[in-house]
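Q: How would the structure tokens look for this protein?
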Amino acid sequence: MALAAAALFAVNGTVSKVILTGGELTALRLTQLRATAAFLLLLGFFLVVAPARLRVRRDEVALLLFYGVVGFAAVQWLYFLAIERLPVGIALLLQFTAPVLVALWARLAWHEPVRARVWLSLSLALAGLVLVAEVWEDVRLGAGGVTAALLAAAGLATYFLVGERATERRDALSLTCLALGAATGLWAIVQPWWGFPFGALDEVVSLQGALDSTTAPVWLLCLSMVSLGTVAPFALSLGALRHLPATRVSIVAMTEVVLAAVVAWIWLGEALSAVQLLGGGVVLLGVILAQTSR
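A: Here is the predicted structure in token form.
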């Protein structure tokens, strides 16, 4: 289940990039659509199966709002901005440095017992990122894309840290639903639905790269993004947690970075240099050490 979730998330990276670069939807509007549709699907599930699980205590409101805005709305938006400007594999690699930030926060802010390997993991992650960015070359990764991906990493670390504490009081699926509801509310205020470019959903776009001669309507790609790229992998990840410890599931989830790079290479022709591939491996090793340091 964990591997299937990683594979679905990986394919969704390229699907989302095709939507963003081939159609007229902006990263903000696509984030709004993804969060809202996923929330409505989960809300419908709970209203039918277990409406009581959606009850919110007064002392939870602030936490849920913060979690939804930072852990869902901001992370998804920044991720879409990053893949618009960077190869999918590199954007994900930068975002997946979040576990290193989690381990450092646990050590420095929460004063939890954390193994000394966390410092080695930080060193490896930084060294790997230097290789990925190829900082000695004249042509470097776009600053905007790198900034968005690193901010997404900080948001993802917040998602992990807040979620870890919040799931002590509430089950993970209802927490996800309510946080997505908060994200949905935010986007409805920032960019009201009456201004949504619904006509862009009917646009037919090329699938680009190896599938350049194949076309599909944007609404179909968005449906795939929501169902196969959001709800299904979230459900599979939660299901995996019933059988494996969270640390192991999160390590398996890192195969998403590798799979996403392979999908983007085969589909879009986004090839990485040998040095970037080496750097990616070093970063992933650092992240694994960070995951196992707590």
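Residues 2-291 form one domain.

Residues 111 and 209 are 48 Å apart (CA to CA).

Upvote if useful.
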